[in-house]
UniProtKB/TrEMBL annotation:
Protein name: Glutaredoxin
Cellular component GO terms, alphabetical: cytoplasm
Organism: Jannaschia seohaensis
Pfam families for the chain: Glutaredoxin (PF00462)
Domain Glutaredoxin as annotated: residue spans: 4-64
InterPro entries associated with the record: Glutaredoxin, Glutaredoxin_subgr, GRX_bact, Thioredoxin-like_sf
GO molecular function (one): glutathione disulfide oxidoreductase activity
The keyword Electron transport is assigned to this record: yes
GO BP annotation list: cell redox homeostasis; cellular response to oxidative stress
Length: 85
């Protein structure tokens, strides 16, 4: 399974929903808390082509987007294929 990187912040309901879905899929997730990891918000914004909201989710090197984007992939049946190596 491809590794997933998710940039989050505390008390973010969308972050929690995205993490729950990824956990249910058994995806190997690296969570980066933008409130605690110095420079991570700037890194996230650069990687996400200027998007500043959390979460920002990457499957491998592919930018998925935010929580709604992740759930849209799940709804259309494309998430499982993206997670596979």
């Amino acid at each position: 399974m491809k590794p997933v990187t998710i940039y989050t912040q505390p008390l973010c309901g969308f972050c929690t929903r995205a993490l729950r879905l990824l956990s249910a899929k058994g995806a190997p997730v690296t969570e980066i808390d933008t409130a605690r990891v110095k420079g991570s918000r700037a890194e996230m914004t650069q990687r996400a082509n200027g998007r500043t909201s959390t979460p920002q989710i990457f499957i491998g090197d592919t930018h998925v987007g935010g929580c709604d984007d992740l759930f849209a992939l799940e709804h259309t049946g494309k998430l499982d294929a993206m997670l596979q190596d």
